[in-house]
Fold this sequence. Notes:
The complex is a heterodimer. Chain A is mainly alpha-helical. Chain A is built from nine helices and no strands. Chain B has one domain. Chain B has helices at 2-15, 19-38, 43-72. The A-B interface holds A 78-79, 81-83, 85-86, 88-90, 92-93, 96, 98-99, 132, 136, 139-140, 143-144, 147, 201, 204-205, 208-209, 212-217, 226, 229-230, 233-234, 236-237, 240-241, 245, 247-248 and B 3, 6-7, 10-11, 14-18, 21-22, 25-26, 29, 32-33, 36, 40, 43-44, 46-47, 50-51, 54-55, 57-59, 61-63, 65-67, 69-70, 73.
Amino acid sequence: MIGSLTHTGSIMTAAFLASLVEAVEALTIILAVATVRGWRPAGLGALAGLVLLVVIVVALGPLLDRVPLHLLQLVIGILLLLFGMRWLRKAILRSAGVIPLHDEAKTFATETAELRDQARRHEARLDWLAALTSFKAVLLEGLEVVFIVIALSAGRGLLGPASVGALAACLLVAGIGLVVHRPLARVPENTLKFAVGVMLSAFGVFWTGEGLGVAWPGADLAIIVFVVLFLAIGRTAVVVARRPSPEALS
Amino acid sequence: MNMLGSVFREVLGLFVDDGALALEIVAVVVLAGMCAKLIPDVPLAAGAILLCGCLGVLLANVAQARMDNDHTI
């Protein structure tokens, strides 16, 4: 019972936090499009992206039920490991100052400048280009959200809680974006990525192990232990990466 | 076509950013899989390889990225 509640809660939290990051990134690009060409192409592009996402989910979703559970767990587990550890690695390197932090304000400025540059070159078909930019942003960030929701819930009948977490994050970001009309540059993106990277990596180890036939001690509660271990190693890695190397000091 | 190509690259990039990290993770999973096949009586051995391998790969990859960064500077 406790294990099941923990599992549901952690899946919902992971889906919410991951979707928050993706929604903020999509919002930045939609806002850049709206600033340069107005809300019509931005909104239409975003809507088209959402429709295509729904089509993808409706078309591919039922296929997952036909895949044997162990194979599904193994494939999803490996994808979660690749996805989660990639996020965690990047968040660690950013925390340590090895690579620069992601800056929504800078992304907004870059996208706006690019669209204005395109405006000078292709005035006639700019609305089309603007809508396409918005469409691509929603599609790509949305695919990440869809993957996370499916990966976290696959084979466990937890699509509901994961979807609720993701939907809540998208609605929250869209609502704030509509009110403030600015990129959400103050969202602690790297901290969120670190936390989500830890959770997805932990789920990845759990699912991959189950797919290989490992009976984890404590069943679902083992995920908590994995989260603690990834968090500890992640924090240690930040310290290791931050310390100046002897070569750099000499 | 350009758009499709860029979408495909972005989707691939969701899972593979640093090629070495992706390869190391796959190697750990293969190793754990071999262990599960060869010693089915001790399934936790595969689990231990998987967990410790992933944690070790992460730490080693970050340390390597740090060293690469030092050399670039």
